[in-house]
Amino acid sequence: MSSAAAAVGWRPPARRRVRAIRNRLRKVYGIPEAKPHGHPIAELILTVLSQSTNDRNRDVAYLALRERFPDWESVRDARVDEVEEAIRPGGISRVKSARIKSILRAVGEQARPDGAPAPTGPDALSLDWLGSLPVAEAQAYLCSLPGVGRKTAACVLLFAFGMRDVPVDTHVSRVGTRLGLLRPGAPFEELHDTMLELTPSGEELEFHLNLLRHGRRRCHARRPECRECALASLCPSAFQVG
Predict the structure, then answer these.
(1) CB count, 10 Å around CB of 206?
(2) Is the Cβ–Cβ distance between 197 and 18 less than 8 Å?
(3) Are 148 and 137 in contact (CB under 8 A)?
(4) Longest pairwise C-alpha distance within the chain
(5) Does the pTM of the predicted model rise above 0.90?
């Protein structure tokens, strides 16, 4: 079946089906335990650094950035070539360094939503107040920052605050689409809305991380390992790819 035909015939999955997939993933990968770390700017910058690279290179670039500059205000005020040099191990450092500086400037200069606390000082950078907002308002603010989309916003809200949001990266999108959880060919905005709607409340971290792990370990883009896949009996795409 073509992707266009699959998209036409797609229907939102039943709650029972979502729970069955969750339970099967849970048997393979367990229930991840990661409490919200409470550092939203760090998560925001880490997510920018993760683009188009692997976790190791991302972490090396992030640690180099933190070692080079004592705080986020120093990163904002540094020359772009200094930031670029620090994050070079993460790849496409010229683009990422300019984006990081633009984001940090916007955090300091952009008006906060109504109801958010006032800045503690004219130069201070903080996003700690996001945790006091409704999810939709926090999403909207983050997505108004330069180069920040729904996935990055979801990473900040979920990992820093434990708020109800689910990041949809390429792995989650691929696995979710093959399992019939997501509409084939849907834009990323719709993918995020759908994934958030179908994820059981309180299980956002588990569902995201286990779908991500499955995409990395079994459900590869070109040659998924369907014969070894614990989800094969639940997957309408099993043995049809590669």
Answers:
(1) 20
(2) no
(3) no
(4) 58
(5) yes
Q: Please check whether residue 242 is in contact with residue 222, taking contact to mean a CB–CB distance below 8 angstroms.
A: yes
* pLDDT tens series, the chain, 242 aa: 445 546 667 899 999 999 999 999 999 999 998 899 999 999 999 999 998 889 999 999 999 999 999 999 999 999 999 999 999 999 999 999 999 999 999 999 988 888 788 777 666 799 999 999 999 999 999 999 999 999 999 999 999 999 999 999 999 999 999 999 999 999 999 999 999 999 999 999 999 999 999 999 999 999 999 999 999 999 999 999 86
Residue 223, both tokens: 């040659």
Amino acid (one-letter) located at 43: E
Q: At 82, which amino acid appears? A: E
Separation of alpha carbons 15 and 61, rounded Å: 40
